[in-house]
């Protein structure tokens, strides 16, 4: 996570970008359908993390650092700009953001798209969330020719994993949507090959494309999201966008079924309990066969628990096994 000075600097840059890009009025590509709404629209964006130990028990980060979310960085834009997209390669700026939480390069890319392609209307950001189940919020402005919203939030800790939205259109024909809510799932930026939340840096060479992480992909037992008994992962987060009426001061956010304490939240809806099966090591070698001469003896072997079960997962098997044998050195 960045220092307070770095966070303040990022806010200053975002403010500068907002001022410099807010006046851009790019034209749509030829033949492209456009939003016919008559005016600008403002939205409140509420991001709620659902990354709990109950929903994601496997290797859940408890310290150094504990589960948390980076600051949110987003933009409103036209269809000829893409911050990120599944099955396409992440930019250098996105790589720096999802791997290190460094936003400078990504903001420069957004600024360049606004200046050269006239495809970006505004930049917005929201503060980091210091827990897996916290919340944060921001406001954003969309334009009839820049009605799409994209943003990213880094999963901390992780190799290059993030959640976000790609080109969500807030315009429907001639009107702005009043409210949109989406569940968010983890994505792999394709730039680091780590399997677990705390994996050391291990660059993916050649770089892979952005992909959604599922309960079975990557198909490796060591992966932090590998839950082969689940058809799909529970959502890691949820974003709700609500159109603002008149001034922001008059806005009253809708009930999100959340009980707030600062930026900590408790979801009143039932939290999914993801079962985590016990994982045991391989058996050790058999020990010596002990016993009196002329009779069968006993030898044993052991194994140990790699992962403790949780949420009614399969319990651990026996950790010790014995079998009869002919004594090696009878007494």
What does this structure look like?
This protein is of the alpha+beta class. The protein folds into two domains: 4-26 and 33-267, Sandwich (Immunoglobulin-like), CATH 2.60.40.2130; 279-325, Thrombospondin type-1 (TSP1) repeat (TSP-1 type 1 repeat), CATH 2.20.100.10. Helices cover 12% and strands 30% of the residues. The protein contains three helices and 18 strands. It has a six-stranded antiparallel sheet with strand order 3-2-5-6-10-11. A hairpin with a 2-residue loop joins β7 and β8. α1 runs parallel beside α3 and α2 packs antiparallel against α3. It is elongated. The termini are far apart. Residues 1-6, 12-31 and 248-269 have low confidence and may be disordered. Residues 31-221 form the Spondin domain. Keywords: Calcium, Cell adhesion, Disulfide bond, Extracellular matrix, Glycoprotein, Immunity, Innate immunity, Metal-binding, Secreted, Signal. One of its GO terms (cellular component) is extracellular matrix.
Descriptive tags:
331 residues; alpha+beta; Immunoglobulin-like; TSP-1 type 1 repeat; 2 domains; six-stranded antiparallel beta sheet; four-stranded antiparallel beta sheet; 3 helices; 18 strands; 30% strand; elongated; disordered N terminus; TSP1_spondin_dom; signal
Give a brief rundown of this model.
It comes from Heterocephalus glaber (Naked mole rat). This protein has 331 residues and is of the alpha+beta class. 12% of the residues lie in helices and 30% in strands.
What count of helical segments does DSSP give?
3
| Strand arrangement, major sheet | 3-2-5-6-10-11
Q: Work out the helicity level.
A: 10-25%
Envelope shape:
elongated
Mean of residue pLDDT values: 84
CATH arch. level architecture of the largest domain: Sandwich
Oligomeric grouping of the chains: single chain
Looking at this structure, what is the CATH superfamily of the largest domain? F-spondin domain
- Listing every helix as H and every strand as E from the N terminus to the C terminus, the arrangement reads HEEHHEEEEEEEEEEEEEEEE
Identify the CATH class of the largest domain.
Mainly Beta
Which radius of gyration do the C-alpha atoms yield? 26 Å
Helix vs. strand class: alpha+beta
The largest β sheet comes out as: 6 strands, antiparallel
Provide the β-strand percentage band: 25-35%
What is the terminal separation in angstroms? 64 Å
Number of domains: 2
Domain Spondin: 31-221
InterPro entries: Spondin/Thrombospondin_T1, Spondin_N, Spondin_N_sf, TSP1_rpt, TSP1_rpt_sf, TSP1_spondin_dom
Organism: Heterocephalus glaber
Pfam family, one: Spond_N
